[in-house]
Amino acid sequence: MFQWFNEPKINFMAPRRFFLTLSTLGCLAGVYAIVLLYQGKANLGTDFGAGVLLRMSASSSVEIDKVRQSLKDQGYGDAVIQQVKEDDNSGFKLIIKLKHDESKEVGSIGQDVLDFFNKSFPDAHFTLDGSDEVGPAVSQKLRDDALKAFLLSMLGILVYIAFRFDFKFAVAAIITTVHDILVILGIIILTGREFNLLQVTALLTLAGYSLNDTVVTFDRIRENLKFLVKDHTFASLVNLSVNETLSRTINTSGTVFLTLLPLCVIGGDALKDFAFTLLLGVVVGTYSSIFVASPILVEWNNLAKPKAPK
């Protein structure tokens, strides 16, 4: 394995409380993002937000403001319109998100919008390339199922780490994984990116990636515990373990980062948000394995120490 450092001796544990405080603020942003999600104020995909997603194209361009005004005149004042720009500049393409309308029959909204557009912009020759429609009951079930999937995965992680190491390692791993999910979720929601089932898939994938990185460090800490009494305090032993796994962490994260970067830049509209979430998760997961998981163990160990009698 390529070694970036020759026996590094970086004191990662010295500023641990600063990074734990910074991570706490990131988690609070994630909690706020969850509140926005359940209030329906986030940019939800149709699978979570109960609505209609229309993919339309035209032979000639139309000003977005005119399209927006046309939808407003039709009763869709809260429509979200996105122009899709492709590298080959093939035509004028739009993605339109509309809220669910119970008064309309399922599947009829797309045709109604198409007819209205062709009446308002006869020279543009709009066509409906596709549509997705999800009702409130289905979207609520999808949200509940996504939450259940996350909770079950956290329970599985807790059992696995507690079996392989011990309980405090398991709790530290769970806190670290939840930290990663909250920070990434906060960035996605607060930057206005669409949150959908594909993003949930990315978050669960990153939970596994982050756990793997954390387990490697924890495994080295366990191996080094035999030196605790002889040569090291617990904090210095943890610091030693992080330094010993540093090159491995950089190699693994760097490889994944470089693989995802082209997808994020030129992956197209269908993959860009998914790749961005994965890319962000690699950075956050690498950070947390060094500056969150290990410091939690050190702080826990310090709190568990018996106090010297006065």
What would you note in describing this structure?
The chain has 10 helices and 4 strands. The chain is of the alpha+beta class and 310 residues long. It has 2 domains: 16-44 and 137-304, Multidrug efflux transporter AcrB transmembrane fold (Up-down Bundle); 51-133, Alpha-Beta Plaits (2-Layer Sandwich), CATH 3.30.70.2040. It has a 4-stranded antiparallel beta sheet with strand order 2-3-1-4. A hairpin with a 7-residue loop joins strand 2 (80-84) and strand 3. The mean pLDDT is 82.
Throw out a few tags for this protein.
310 residues; alpha+beta; Multidrug efflux transporter AcrB transmembrane fold; Alpha-Beta Plaits; 2 domains; four-stranded antiparallel sheet; 10 helices; elongated
**Second rung of CATH, namely the architecture of the largest domain:** Up-down Bundle
Shape, principal axes of CA atoms:
elongated
Low-pLDDT segments: none
Structural classification: alpha+beta
- The percent range for strand residues is 5-15%
Regarding quaternary structure, how should these chains be classified? single chain
